[in-house]
Amino acid sequence: MFGRYDRRRAPPWRRLGSALVGAVLRVLYASPRAVRATSFRAMRRRLVDGLVRQRSRAPLLGARILCLTRRVGDVEVRHDARVEGRSGYGLGRQLRLFCALVVARFLPGGPAPAWRIRTSGGGA
Questions:
Q1: What is the pTM of this model?
Q2: Which of 63, 69, 50, 55 is nearest to 105 (CA)?
Q3: Residues 17/98, Cβ–Cβ less than 8 Å
Q4: How far is CA 51 from the centre of its chain?
Q5: Which end of the chain is more exposed for a tag (fewer CB within 10 A), N or C?
Q6: Per-residue pLDDT of the chain (124 residues; tens, 9 = 90+)
Q7: Phi, psi for residue 90 in degrees, rounded to 5
Q8: What is the DSSP string of 26-83?
């Protein structure tokens, strides 16, 4: 379950980067159009265990979640201003995330939706 912010407080360039990442998740990882992947997540223990088993320097959690389950949704959450510090996601980091999601999808052994492999007759 992803949190869908009631009101987005990010600057325009950040929203653009989020839109690019969302498009990649929809097209390459079969994310439902109505679901917006955010940093706010709640999940069942079984899914957490599956994520922990996948060792990676850059885990790309949104994509990994979509690869392990089709049961995704979102719920509205309040988006409060940061009390301390600042976001580590600048435009450059969002562009790197976008590229990493695209490249990882086509690498041998890269993330592929396990449910898609099972339904296409492959073994996973």
A1: 0.69
A2: 63
A3: yes
A4: 12
A5: C
A6: 888 887 777 778 888 888 888 888 888 888 888 888 888 889 999 999 988 887 777 678 888 888 888 888 888 888 887 788 887 777 888 888 888 888 888 876 665 555 444 444 444 4
A7: -90, 180
A8: HHHH---TT----S-B---HHHHHHHHHS--SS--HHHHHHHH-S---EEEE--PPPS
